[in-house]
Design a protein that fits this description.
The chain is about 25% helix and about 15% strand. It is α/β, with parallel strands linked by helices. The strands form four sheets. The chain has an eight-stranded parallel β-sheet, covered by helices on one side. Strands 12-13-14-18-16 form a five-stranded antiparallel β-sheet. It has a three-stranded antiparallel β-sheet with strand order 4-6-5, with no helix packed on it.
Length: about 500
């Protein structure tokens, strides 16, 4: 089995992880300093949100140079040392690659907007105004109801940006763009990275000459973009990764909330290795809703022999503790995440049960309003929580009690619970890579089994706020999300794992 199929990938938002140079911003040496913690926790890989040079208007997702490290985070030498030490501990390292757009300060775009005859003019998407002076199409960019087009006075045309005006979209129909972006992949693959999380990768191909449907006109175009030509580009990208040994992996952010649409981006085993399935971020705490999410995902991906992914939180969405409320649900949701068939993604701080921070308007910095879920990780119970110069954003509630230091010293903490659950997953062939069978819901209890060879485990999740009797004949309890499970019943919001004997 390839390593990423049974992996648990730990997402690190570097600015908020660990600061070693006392500037209030996390850095690569901070990640390296905490590798021992990540090894102890038991994750298989780390994914770093963007570390490239950037003016930081979208905090790294506006890339000014694809082949360097922003001084905020350190240097290429720091990165190389991080890769070596991570690999020495058996931890894979993935980078966040941003292929849809650059920063407006990238040299390619600076040249592109300098003249209609510039070398890089066609590297971005430029269009004339319509004959009536109107916009090229009716697309809306993310985070507002503003057009996805900005007028350039110097050259008298509009350029497209699915996100901020500071993030012009690359023109992937230009083969020179594709060649240049392939070289950026090789730059990091040559340095030993194990793969890439590929930002908004379904946006590469665009039907620019088409309007969005009138009834969807005020939605951001991002979750609507689904052009057939993107699959040609993904096959080229896959070809670059396949040049390298070691199962280098491509993980696509395909922000389409229909699993059948997402499944297309795996191709026939020749496009993405994995694609994020974001339906789990929006599934309510309800057995029937989760049953539908799992069935729809398994059906769509099974049809193309694709491997699923599961995620509860990330840098763009509210943390699971905030979204669901209550540590009981956090533990049950974590059990679900780590027992479903597929690659699991764990967002830094999720192992602590952190909630989003409450950020006052005057301290907000993110253009998409995502500061709360990007709050700094509390390492210690002290007043500075391990950030000696302070941090750029407030900490989550009860940061001292929820800190790594406090939870390491508390055997019943969410941190120890997560570590034990990761160890169970790692020790079980059925949980790592087995089939999923007998999926059903009895009232508010979701049930499924995982099977590999002669090993079978049953997972039960009680979504109800009351105790619920369950039939456990022919099984023995392996793990529970509550400290004192009762035989023959599930506590409110309890998830339990049984070995079928």
């Amino acid at each position: 089995m390839t390593w990423w199929r049974d992996a648990v990938v730990y997402q690190i938002y570097p600015r908020s992880f660990c600061d070693t140079n006392a500037d209030g911003v996390g850095d690569l040496n901070g990640v390296r300093r905490r590798l021992g913690y990540l090894e102890w926790l038991g994750v298989d890989a780390i994914w770093l949100s963007p570390i490239f040079p950037s003016p930081m208007r979208d905090f790294g997702y506006d890339v000014a140079d694809y082949e360097d490290v922003d001084p905020t985070f350190g240097s290429l030498e720091d990165f190389d040392l991080l890769v070596r030490e991570a690999h020495g501990r058996g931890i894979k390292l993935l980078l966040d690659w941003v292929p849809n757009h650059t920063s407006s300060e990238h040299p390619w775009f600076i040249d592109s907007r300098s003249s209609r005859r510039s070398r890089h003019r066609d590297w971005f998407i430029w269009r004339e105004a319509k004959s009536d002076g109107g916009l090229p199409n009716n697309w809306i960019h993310a985070w507002s109801e503003e057009p996805a087009w900005t007028w350039d006075e110097l050259t008298g045309q509009y350029y497209l940006h699915m996100f901020l005006a500071d993030q012009p979209d690359l023109n992937w129909s230009n083969s020179e763009v594709r060649d240049a972006m392939s070289e950026t992949l090789r730059f990091w693959l040559d340095r030993g990275v194990d793969g890439f999380r590929m930002d908004v990768v379904h946006g590469l191909g665009k039907n620019v000459d088409q309007d969005d449907p009138e009834e969807l006109r005020m939605l951001s175009h991002t979750p609507l973009n689904d052009a057939a030509v993107t699959h040609d580009y993904l096959r080229e990208i896959r070809g670059v990764l396949d040049e390298y040994e070691g199962d280098r992996v491509s993980i696509g952010e395909v922000y389409l909330l229909d699993p059948a649409q997402v499944a297309k981006y795996y191709g026939h085993g020749d496009e993405l290795h994995l694609s994020f399935n974001f339906t789990s971020l929006f599934t309510p705490w309800c057995a029937s809703a989760w049953l539908k999410t799992i069935r729809d995902t398994e059906s769509a991906l099974g049809a193309v022999s694709a491997w699923p992914t599961w995620v509860l939180s990330n840098h763009d969405n509210a943390r699971v503790a905030t979204r669901l409320g209550g540590q009981e649900r956090v533990r049950a949701a974590m059990t679900l995440l780590l027992t479903l068939r597929g690659t699991a993604f764990l967002y830094a701080g999720e192992e602590l049960g952190l909630e989003d921070a409450v950020v006052s308007p005057e301290r907000m910095v993110d253009p998409g309003g995502r500061d709360g879920c990007r709050a700094p990780l509390p390492w210690s119970a002290s007043h500075d929580h391990g950030w000696p110069a302070g941090a750029r954003l407030p900490f989550a509630a009860e940061a001292s009690r929820m800190s790594v230091e406090s939870q390491v010293d508390s055997p019943g903490s969410v941190l120890h619970f997560t570590r034990q659950l990761l160890a169970l997953r790692r020790s079980s062939k059925a949980l790592r890579g087995g089939t999923i069978e007998n999926l059903h819901a009895d009232a508010q209890v979701l049930v499924f089994e995982r099977r590999c060879d002669d090993e079978c485990v049953r997972v039960m999740v009680n979504f109800d706020a009351t105790r619920t009797p369950v039939e456990a004949t022919g099984s023995s309890l392996l793990f529970s999300s509550v400290e004192q499970p009762a035989p023959g019943e599930l506590a409110p919001n309890e998830a339990a794992i049984f070995r079928i004997v």
